[in-house]
Design a protein that fits this description.
By secondary structure, this protein is an alpha/beta fold. Helix content is 52%, strand content 14%. The protein has helices at residues 19-29, 51-56, 72-82, 99-112, 129-146, 162-165, 178-188, 211-229, 231-257, 263-298; strands spanning 6-12, 38-45, 61-66, 87-90, 116-121, 158-161, 193-198. The protein has a 7-stranded mixed β-sheet with strand order 3-2-1-4-6-5-7, with helices on both faces. The longest helix is centred in the C-terminal third of the chain and has 36 residues, at 263-298. It is elongated.
Length: 301
């Protein structure tokens, strides 16, 4: 089966109700996978309950403790830095994920030599109705920004090649939104990705996610990623629109008043032109960074 070493990263924050059963289920299945080199890493993200104590009862599981709660993304980044696998897979600590699905994802990555793979939640998966509307709104916004169809932009089950995800760790947010941001990163960088269908169960315990707060924060992070890798898509188009708006306003007012071009129109044109120039400069910097990353990828030190 798989030839690559694998690290399964499980971020956990106050998951004493679920973490024991999650690890027991996962560890019981791993010996059946016919894989020689696989590790399970749990990052206890400053839990104030018995999460760390329960994890420590599993001797084959690596436990890494944060002294205080830093956030889901921070726990993921710690797990990536501390793990050793060529393939790094994310797995939730709340009982939503099934071992057979993470195996399916790992096999897909290894057999198809993918840079990344995302678990797509099927129609038979559990879904919190309270979040359905918010997810649809966020999905529409992300589709508009990224200009691509997204089947499941924030699935918590996903895998990456180490040499693909590590260079982008600084762009992953410490809080909620790590899944969505990595989706945007992989798409913007045009890595070779894939998808597998998974089934998600109802979580055990209470979620710490706040829909509106984390949703708006995620939109902001996606805009940062797009501007970082495709600045002309946002800055260039925004500048052209503002310039056109300034010209149109100036012409209309000049014809109506017969008193020259109004100051506001001049300000809009100058501001739009500045945005375009800033977009061109940012685009050149982005291309230089991409070239450097490609060289490092092709000719590793």
């Amino acid at each position: 089966m798989a030839n690559s070493s694998v690290s399964i990263i499980i971020p956990a924050y106050n998951e004493e109700e679920a973490i024991g059963a999650v690890l027991e289920e996962l560890l019981n299945e791993i010996p059946k996978w016919d894989m020689e080199d696989i590790e399970v890493v749990v990052i206890n993200d400053g839990s104030v309950d018995r999460t760390a104590q329960i994890v420590s009862e599993f001797p084959t599981v690596r436990l890494i403790n944060h002294r205080k709660n830093k956030g889901y993304g921070a726990a993921i980044k710690t797990g990536i830095r501390e793990s050793t696998g060529e393939i790094i897979a994310w797995y939730d600590a709340d009982g939503q994920h099934r071992p057979e699905d993470i195996l399916k994802l790992i096999k897909e990555m290894d057999e198809e030599n993918l840079d990344y793979c995302v678990g797509i939640r099927g129609a038979d998966s559990y879904e919190d109705r309270k979040r359905r509307f918010g997810k649809k709104v966020l999905k529409s916004i992300l589709r508009f920004i990224l200009k691509e169809e997204l089947r499941d932009f924030n699935s918590g089950m996903r895998g990456f090649r180490r040499d693909v995800i590590v260079p982008h760790l600084s762009l992953i947010p410490n809080t909620f939104g790590a899944s969505t941001v990595t989706t945007a990163l992989m798409m913007e960088q045009e890595y070779n990705g894939g998808e597998v269908n998974i089934t998600v169960r109802k979580r055990t315990g209470k979620s710490s996610v706040r829909q509106f707060r984390d949703g708006f924060r995620t939109i902001g992070l996606i805009l940062q990623v797009v501007i970082l890798f495709q600045p002309m898509r946002i800055l260039g188009k925004s500048g052209l629109f503002i310039c056109a708006l300034g010209v149109l306003y100036g012409v209309i007012r000049a014809v109506q008043w017969s008193n020259g071009v109004p100051i506001l129109a001049s300000i809009l044109v100058m501001f739009g032109f500045q945005l375009i120039c800033f977009g061109v400069l940012s685009d050149q910097i982005s291309k230089m960074r991409k070239q450097e990353e490609e060289q490092r990828y092709i000719y590793p030190r």
